[in-house]
Write a sequence for this structure.
């Protein structure tokens, strides 16, 4: 039984974390909301005035906005498809006994620890560069024209770079989930004559469903905010071909100094992220009861 | 009863697992190899794998020319500093939620997590302006503050899931024996909590080290950690492949080693305990 004394002590111990996070959430959030209703340009200090919904109208009718939403969805969707499908296949492979399991696990997990600016630059220069990149060399070796990835397929290239970093995450989590599967259940199914396919679809996949959902939700949270990979490879271009919502807000506010419109974009980004967050929180909350 | 595995099957799996493992790891391997080449060899066609003249020249050039050590130090200060401060704030909070849970503990935990879902770009502008006005732009202090706050929910959650596994009976036994709250924490809880705290520390240093939104937007030169320093290679210096590779290798090597040690904790830390 917790005593009255320990209860107040507990409240005292929890308060710094709560207060800090409360401040971190409320102060910038309300400022963003406030700025989004202002005509506010950093180049013209002192001329801020109430603008009502003007910023939202400007931002939501900007063709770049729809490009950015579309790019954001393609980026998130593309990376999710690659990492989830690839992650399931890899987890199935690595779950079987083979020689050197520990080392292969280390090799596969490694890209997750590479900082985004490094992975983006290494891919951009040493692999995708149409003159000196390794892909250009391979293309020439088999008699093909080198392909300029970041100029002709910029978004797909960025999807590839980002997916390379997140594939290990999906694999590791799905592998962990797979290892908690009761092997006797599988053996029983096998003895009853279930084929590999039906074992996969009726036993493994349902068992993995929860982990897959967690992977999708967590990755979505992070993928909505992909930034560094775009900044160092294409800078959002060519045109707006690789501008996602995060990058658009950054460009609007810190490159064009339009704080008002940038803030309106920030509010839109928060709303988008919250839609995903609600689902994720439900999943995690359920687990907390168990 | 384990299923019998035929040697042929095991050999096949071994082949594919290694092939795919090496393929995924290849960009890192290639970066490390290129860092030991001369610039001419780095762009030579056909590229050579190991049959080049190994040189350490790139490493010394990068260190001399670009103040590499300062950026490395910034990364260390920012990632370790924000993690330690985060732990100081989070340990009491996680402790009390795990051992003295109240009616609203679950709500508090979920709410803390929800702050992590806030997209950074939604608060970029206010933070940028506040930092500009308070002189925190391009300072290590500023980044330590931001990274402490953005990782605090993860730290609280990880510690909470670890603390939850410590048997409460032991704590109650200590209380029965008349141990004060302080004695309870120092002599009973701490020894059992150290492994969990250590994994939390490790994972958060990794996350903070690789954080590349705030570090890119809030620093210019002085306080730039390695993420921002490497970004400065985007053009035109990036065309010096060997030097880019040397700088990259040095930036990722410490974290790769730490990451390999913490791979088991990674799953639970990053899924907030939803997958164990």
């Amino acid at each position: 039984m917790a005593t009255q004394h320990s209860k107040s002590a507990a409240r005292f111990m929890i308060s710094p974390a709560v207060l800090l996070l409360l401040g971190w959430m409320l102060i910038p959030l309300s400022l963003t909301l406030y700025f989004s209703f202002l005509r506010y340009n950093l180049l013209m200090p002192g001329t801020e005035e109430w603008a009502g919904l003007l910023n939202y109208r400007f931002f939501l009718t900007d063709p770049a906005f729809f490009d950015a939403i579309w790019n954001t969805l393609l980026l998130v969707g593309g990376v999710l498809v690659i990492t989830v499908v690839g992650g399931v296949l890899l987890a199935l492979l690595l779950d079987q006994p083979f020689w050197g399991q520990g080392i292969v696990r280390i090799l596969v997990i490694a890209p997750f620890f590479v900082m985004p600016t490094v992975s983006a630059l290494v891919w951009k220069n040493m692999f995708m560069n149409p003159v000196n990149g390794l892909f250009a060399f391979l293309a020439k070796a088999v008699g093909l024209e080198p392909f300029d990835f970041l100029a002709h397929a910029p978004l797909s290239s960025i999807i590839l770079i980002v997916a390379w970093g997140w594939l290990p995450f999906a694999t590791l989590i799905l592998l962990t989930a797979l290892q908690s599967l009761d092997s006797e259940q599988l053996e029983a199914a096998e003895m009853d004559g279930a084929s590999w396919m039906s074992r996969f679809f009726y036993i493994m996949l349902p068992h993995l469903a929860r982990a897959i959902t967690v992977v999708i939700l967590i990755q979505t949270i992070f993928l909505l905010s992909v930034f560094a990979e775009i900044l160092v490879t294409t800078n959002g271009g060519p045109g707006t071909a690789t501008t996602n919502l995060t990058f658009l807000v950054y460009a609007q506010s810190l490159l064009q100094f339009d704080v008002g419109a940038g803030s309106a974009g920030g509010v839109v980004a928060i709303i988008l992220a919250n839609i995903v967050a609600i689902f994720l929180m439900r999943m995690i909350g359920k687990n907390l009861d168990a | 009863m384990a299923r019998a595995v035929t040697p042929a099957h095991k050999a096949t799996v071994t082949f594919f697992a290694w092939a795919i493992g090496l393929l995924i790891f290849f960009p890192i391997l290639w970066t490390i190899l290129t860092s030991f080449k001369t610039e001419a060899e780095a762009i030579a066609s056909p590229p050579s794998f190991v049959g080049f003249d190994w040189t350490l020249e790139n490493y010394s050039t990068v260190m001399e020319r670009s103040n590499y050590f300062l950026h490395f130090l910034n990364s260390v200060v920012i990632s370790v500093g924000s993690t330690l401060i985060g732990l100081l704030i989070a340990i009491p909070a996680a402790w009390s939620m795990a051992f003295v849970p109240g009616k609203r503990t679950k709500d508090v935990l979920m709410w803390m997590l929800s702050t992590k879902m806030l997209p950074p770009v939604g608060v970029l502008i206010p933070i940028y302006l506040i930092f500009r006005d308070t002189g925190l732009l391009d300072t290590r202090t500023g980044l330590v503050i931001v990274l402490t706050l953005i990782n605090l929910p993860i730290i609280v959650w990880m510690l909470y899931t670890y603390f939850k596994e410590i048997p409460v009976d032991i704590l109650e036994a200590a209380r029965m024996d008349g141990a004060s709250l302080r004695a309870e924490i120092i002599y009973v809880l701490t020894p059992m909590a150290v492994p969990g705290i250590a994994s939390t520390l490790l994972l958060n240093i990794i996350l903070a080290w690789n954080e590349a939104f705030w570090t890119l937007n809030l620093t210019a030169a002085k306080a730039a950690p390695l993420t921002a320093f490497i970004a400065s290679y985007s053009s035109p210096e990036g065309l010096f492949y060997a030097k880019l590779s040397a700088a990259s290798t040095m930036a990722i090597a410490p974290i790769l080693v730490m990451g390999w040690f913490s791979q088991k904790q990674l799953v639970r830390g990053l899924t907030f305990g939803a997958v164990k």
About this structure: The mean pLDDT of chain B is 86. The radius of gyration of chain B is 23 Å. Residues 97 and 108 of chain B are 9 Å apart (CA to CA). Chain B has two domains: 7-59, 66-232.
